[in-house]
Design goal:
Blueprint (H helix, E strand, L loop, with lengths): L1 E5 L4 E5 L2 E5 L3 H13 L3 E5 L2 E2 L5 E5 L4 H4 L8 H9 L1 H4 L2 H15 L10 H8 L10 H10 L7 E6 L6 H4 L6 E7 L2 H4 L11 E4 L5 E4 L2 H12 L5 H9 L5 H12 L1
């Protein structure tokens, strides 16, 4: 369970796996989130423990490849690179130890000892592209290489057009996701689910409506007002901010629920 609490307005987002936020200006909203975290106004808890910054990864359309991938001992990218150069066969530890022993015997001391640092060796051989922006394959590589059910990270994905529910579905057991977008219908493109749970729609006036089930919501509003409204009209009108007199009436009613 993840909890994101805003101390200033006594508001808490609490969810498992995934929360999607739609706002007209995703990048600005993301900056506000980061600024609030830096000021201590926004508190993030994962599994009832205060979350430090190394468990939060903020990714947007301007994230560079080198921002996402780096050489660290705990990064399984090191394992991938080891396979590329056949590291275990390249570094013959037995042979090196024999040569060290021979050298030390000649000088009659423990002059040398073996100190292998795989990370430093590989970082001296390989270099990660620091100029290009992250693409879909690179994000998948990161998510695959850093899967962890015991120390789950919060991945904030902001305004990335090619991110869809189908593409991150298999990672929901390993990460918490916060998706910030200007059009959440594109995020759920080709995804079939009767209950779109956890959709947070932020309107232009910064008020929000938590839409739990579009189907049930459309039935409720139709019954409440006597005017039929479909799921498609709700999504198109509320979430895409279309100017429609009928939709405006329903939006006013939703805010009173």
């Amino acid at each position: 369970m993840i909890k994101i609490k805003n101390k200033n307005i006594d508001e808490t987002w609490e969810y498992e796996g995934l929360k999607v936020i739609q706002t007209k200006y995703p990048d600005n909203f993301n900056i506000q989130i980061l600024d609030s975290m830096n000021k201590g106004e926004l508190i993030v808890q994962i599994d009832d423990k205060l979350c430090n910054y190394n468990r939060i990864l903020n990714i947007n359309q301007y994230t560079k490849t080198k921002d996402l991938h780096n050489f660290t001992k705990n990064n399984s990218l090191i394992d991938e690179l080891s396979k590329i150069i056949d590291y275990d066969n390249l570094i013959n530890v037995t042979n090196i130890c024999e040569r060290i022993s021979k050298f030390n015997n000649e000088v009659n001391s423990n002059f040398l000892s073996l100190k292998l640092d795989k990370t430093k060796i590989l970082s001296a051989i390989f270099d990660i592209d620091g100029d290009s922006f992250m693409n879909e394959n690179e994000l998948n590589l990161f998510l695959e290489n850093n899967k962890n059910t015991n120390d789950k990270k919060l991945i904030v994905l902001c305004n990335i057009k090619w991110i869809t529910m189908n593409k991150i579905l298999k990672y929901l057991n390993y990460y918490y996701f916060l998706i910030i977008t200007s059009d959440f219908t594109s995020f759920f493109k080709n995804y079939k689910n009767d209950n779109l749970d956890g959709i947070l729609v932020i309107n232009n006036d910064n008020k929000f409506t938590d839409l739990i089930d579009f189907c049930k919501l459309s039935e409720y509003l139709t019954q409440k007002t006597g005017n039929p409204i479909s799921e498609e009209e709700l999504i198109r009108g509320i979430c895409l901010d279309k100017n429609d007199e009928k939709i405006e009436k329903f939006c006013d009613l939703i805010k009173k629920i």
